[in-house]
């Protein structure tokens, strides 16, 4: 049994609600007199609406993939509804995204090392060492090219079909802008920009951040500044917990609470590369279903801000770009997979 909550009479079902008990989830047997209880105070504290509706769906439980969250198919409003981020983030437009899996955490240095070691003796001979403050921190200082090759290496290591090819051949070495993504392949890949933003919003609509309209150091690892009214953190500058010792000031993955889809650190910590080429006017004519960026360009898309960027870059709609060969101590990545178990 799956439950969704609407506060606009069924126009949308975007209320973040997970505190259910009773006949909910997988394994509910057929029959009558089933009961559901929603702890509204836990999910929707001090809010109310005269137009609350519930949608209850009887279905098989969704597939489970360890370390990943299933992002459901559906539409969302993509872009900057607050008119704060410039023309590259507008117009706000409705985008339909197919279901997919998104990594709950950014790729760690430990996982990078494990796959890189395997890849070095299996044809992936130029994957860089990368860097990370500790094994449970996000890996960084690796290029977009290296990330997609690493995705292929992990896919092959686990017996999956790699997503990335060049001229029909699995992409293993070099720096090629002719790389093609096989979106139906079972392997690991980078998310598209639309997938990333839908996942970051966590099922919320019209909010600035994955959890709401304001941001503090209790919610993300970023550079706090009084320049933005929505940055209400009582502590300023670098995050006080992670601004000691040597740089970079990343935090261990999962240090902050998850959003409505169960994803951690979608903003702050490290920028996350996406598949798409960056297009400053792309939103004006992008496809309404599963957009995957312009066909070419000088820059690939980066999303989410980082430990040394301010609250503006942590907005869910914020867009940035960099050359695919760029590597920095505040840029990492997160994995996606198509919706196949």
Description of the structure:
It is a single chain. α2 crosses α3. The chain has two domains: 1-61, no CATH class; 64-341, paralog of FGE (formylglycine-generating enzyme). A hairpin with a 2-residue loop joins β9 and β10. Helices cover 11% and strands 18% of the residues. It has helices at 40-43, 109-120, 144-157, 193-201, and strands spanning 2-6, 20-22, 36-38, 53-57, 68-71, 74-78, 93-97, 100-103, 164-166, 169-170, 180-181, 271-277, 300-303, 320-322, 331-332, 336-338. The protein is built from four helices and 16 strands. With 341 residues, it is α+β, with helices and mostly antiparallel strands.
SSE layout and pairing:
Layout: E1 2-6, E2 20-22, E3 36-38, H1 40-43, E4 53-57, E5 68-71, E6 74-78, E7 93-97, E8 100-103, H2 109-120, H3 144-157, E9 164-166, E10 169-170, E11 180-181, H4 193-201, E12 271-277, E13 300-303, E14 320-322, E15 331-332, E16 336-338
Parallel strand pairs: 12-15
Antiparallel strand pairs: 1-4, 2-3, 5-8, 6-7, 8-16, 9-10, 9-11, 12-13, 13-14
Helix pairs in contact: 2-3
Mean pLDDT: 92
N-to-C SSE series? EEEHEEEEEHHEEEHEEEEE
**Count of DSSP-assigned helices:** 4
| Alpha-beta content class | alpha+beta
Termini separation (Å)? 20 Å
How many distinct domains? 2
Main sheet properties: 4 strands, mixed
Strand adjacency order, main sheet? 14-13-12-15
| Residue share in β-strands | 15-25%
Low-confidence stretches: none
CATH H-level superfamily title of the largest domain: paralog of FGE (formylglycine-generating enzyme)
CATH topology of the largest domain: paralog of FGE (formylglycine-generating enzyme)
The Cα radius of gyration reads 20 Å
The backbone outline, from C-alpha atoms, is globular
Strand elements, count: 16
Helix content: 10-25%
Can you tell me the CATH class of the largest domain?
Alpha Beta
**CATH architecture label of the largest domain:** Alpha-Beta Complex
């Amino acid at each position: 049994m799956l439950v969704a909550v609407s506060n606009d009479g069924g126009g949308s079902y975007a209320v973040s609600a997970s505190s259910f008990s009773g006949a909910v989830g997988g394994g509910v047997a057929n029959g009558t007199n089933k009961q559901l209880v929603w702890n509204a105070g836990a999910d929707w504290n001090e809010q109310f609406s005269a137009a609350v509706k519930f949608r209850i769906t009887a279905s098989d439980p969704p597939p489970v993939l360890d370390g990943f969250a299933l992002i459901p198919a559906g539409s969302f409003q993509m872009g900057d509804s607050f008119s704060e981020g410039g023309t590259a983030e507008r117009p706000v437009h409705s985008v339909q995204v197919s279901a997919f899996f998104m990594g709950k955490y950014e790729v760690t240095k430990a996982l990078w090392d494990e796959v890189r070691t395997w890849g070095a003796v299996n044809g992936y001979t130029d994957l860089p060492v990368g860097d990370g403050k500790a094994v449970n921190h996000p890996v960084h200082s690796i290029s977009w090219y290296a990330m997609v090759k690493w995705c292929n290496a992990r896919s092959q290591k686990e017996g999956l079909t790699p997503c990335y090819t060049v001229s029909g051949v699995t992409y293993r070495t070099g720096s090629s802008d002719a790389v093609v993504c096989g979106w139906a392949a079972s392997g690991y890949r980078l998310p598209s920009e639309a997938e990333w933003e839908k996942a970051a919003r966590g099922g919320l609509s019209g909010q600035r951040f994955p959890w709401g309209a304001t941001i503090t150091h209790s919610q993300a690892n970023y550079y706090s500044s009084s320049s933005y009214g929505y940055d209400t953190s009582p502590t300023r500058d670098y995050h006080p917990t992670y601004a000691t010792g040597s740089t970079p000031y990343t935090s261990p993955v999962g240090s902050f609470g998850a959003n409505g889809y169960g994803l951690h650190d979608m903003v702050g910590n490290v920028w996350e590369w996406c598949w798409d080429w960056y297009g400053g006017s792309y939103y004006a004519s992008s496809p309404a279903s599963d957009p995957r960026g312009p066909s070419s360009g000088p820059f690939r898309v980066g999303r989410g801000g980082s430990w040394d960027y301010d609250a503006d870059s942590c907005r869910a709609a914020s867009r940035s770009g960099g050359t695919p060969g760029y590597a920095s101590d505040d840029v990492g990545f997160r994995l996606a997979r198509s919706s196949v178990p």
